[in-house]
Amino acid sequence: MTLKAVIQNDLTLPCIPDPKQFQLWVNAAVKYVENQIPKNINEVCIRIVDRIESAELNRTFREKEGPTNVLSFADLDLEDESLGDLAICAELVASEAENLGIAIKDHWAHLTVHGILHLLNYDHINDQDAEEMEALEIKILKTLDIDNPYEEPPHD
């Protein structure tokens, strides 16, 4: 099974990956969770947003102030062919990667995988759910040669 990654991006920041990269990350996630995806589902929309749009979406749909790195909106209409939408804030991805001392591309991959799992009802509200979701993220990212995002990188 494959899900087509439909990319919506009006930003011109150099840190934004190529659509082929997003497709690679979506494919890696789907490989681990395809049994949870209804057969009629064939795409996921990934919208790249700035801080302003992220904050507006966060306020409107989560009643939280400020931007966030990734938001997920599952498509609850089972007749549709879309798993749902992700909104990923490019500026936050870049600043978080820099603060964490990790490659920006790796952080994009992590947040894409993280968002896909949210669309499939994985969550991290309580410790048990967080452990399950994080373990799956780590497995998926390992297939992409990306280190565990929950371990602190070594300091020089």
Mind explaining what this structure looks like?
With 156 residues, the chain is of the alpha/beta class. The protein has a single domain, classed as Metalloproteases ("zincins"), catalytic domain (Collagenase (Catalytic Domain), 3-Layer(aba) Sandwich), CATH 3.40.390.30. It contains five helices and four strands. It has a four-stranded mixed β-sheet with strand order 1-2-4-3. 28% of the residues are buried. The mean pLDDT is 94.
SSE topology:
Layout: E1 4-9, H1 19-33, E2 43-49, H2 51-62, E3 70-74, E4 82-89, H3 90-100, H4 104-119, H5 127-143
Parallel strand pairs: 1-2, 2-4
Antiparallel strand pairs: 3-4
Short description:
The chain has 156 residues and is of the alpha/beta class.
Percent of residues in helices comes to: 40-55%
Compute the number of helices.
5
Mass-distribution shape: globular
Low-pLDDT stretches = none
| Span between termini | 42 Å
